[in-house]
């Protein structure tokens, strides 16, 4: 009888421990019929390699991830072996929306922060792309090519400075959470920018494994521009056109 009581207490303790554990819940919707029946994966970096955290199937435009939250971390949503979008796995009810116009994550503090930042970054990238369109239009309008380059190079420099300030400011404001290492490694684009951020960073950020490895590669190579993010090192976002190629069935699109 005593043994039975001990077992009962043990089961109650285990149930209490499970109930006290934080968990994540991710609800996804997609209006893209191509995704129906596809297997999606949540992948995170573990020991410098991508590891599956969770998986599910898209059924009638809906998908669902849930589990016990060991630690808050940046993950990437994959379809097969292609990364679609980043997200933060954290406590709360997280929503993913995938349609022909956008891919967005919302519903939790860090995801809201991340996607507000990514929206601003995308706006700046679009402004840079628009300069190419203006170049062509100005040529058609008969503007001297040297004058076009003078005007557009000046505007490009302003946009580049805004992007630099956006990325640096975001990293510095988020030194205390997982977003700073992710954005730093993915979007820091020059040695001066990297050195500027590291000069302001606390030790916890500097000693983060991904940050330390990235900073070492920067200082050793004296890079001018950061190389393309390595999929095995950190999940990364891909551009909308590539996502649409994937969703439209063009599997070999780069």
TrEMBL record:
<keyword id="KW-0732">Signal</keyword>
<feature type="signal peptide">
    <location>
        <begin position="1"/>
        <end position="25"/>
    </location>
</feature>
<protein>
    <recommendedName>
        <fullName>DUF4369 domain-containing protein</fullName>
    </recommendedName>
</protein>
<feature type="domain" description="DUF4369">
    <location>
        <begin position="24"/>
        <end position="114"/>
    </location>
</feature>
<dbReference type="Pfam" id="PF14289">
    <property type="entry name" value="DUF4369"/>
</dbReference>
<dbReference type="InterPro" id="IPR025380">
    <property type="entry name" value="DUF4369"/>
</dbReference>
């Amino acid at each position: 009888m005593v043994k039975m009581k001990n077992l009962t207490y043990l089961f109650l303790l285990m149930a209490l421990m499970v109930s006290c554990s934080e968990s994540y819940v991710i609800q996804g919707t997609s209006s893209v019929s191509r995704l129906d029946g596809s297997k999606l994966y949540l992948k995170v970096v573990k020991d410098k390699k991508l590891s599956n955290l969770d998986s599910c199937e898209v059924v009638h435009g809906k998908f669902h991830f849930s589990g016990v939250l060991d630690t808050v971390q940046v993950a990437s949503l994959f379809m097969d072996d292609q990364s679609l979008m980043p997200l933060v796995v954290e406590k709360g009810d997280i929503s993913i929306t995938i349609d022909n116009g956008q891919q967005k994550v919302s519903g939790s503090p860090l995801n809201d922060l991340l996607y507000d930042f990514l929206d601003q970054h995308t706006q700046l990238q679009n402004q840079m792309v628009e300069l190419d369109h203006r170049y062509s239009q100005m040529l058609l309008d008969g503007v001297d090519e040297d004058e076009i380059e003078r005007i557009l190079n000046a505007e490009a420099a302003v946009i580049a400075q805004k992007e630099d300030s956006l990325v640096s400011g975001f990293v510095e404001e988020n030194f205390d959470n997982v977003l700073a290492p992710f954005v730093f490694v993915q979007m820091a684009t020059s040695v001066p920018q990297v050195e500027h951020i590291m000069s302001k960073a606390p030790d916890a950020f500097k000693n983060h494994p991904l940050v330390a490895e990235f900073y070492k590669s920067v200082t050793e190579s004296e890079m001018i521009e950061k190389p393309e993010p390595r999929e095995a090192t950190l999940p990364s976002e891909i551009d909308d056109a590539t996502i649409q190629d994937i969703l439209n069935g063009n599997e070999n699109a780069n």
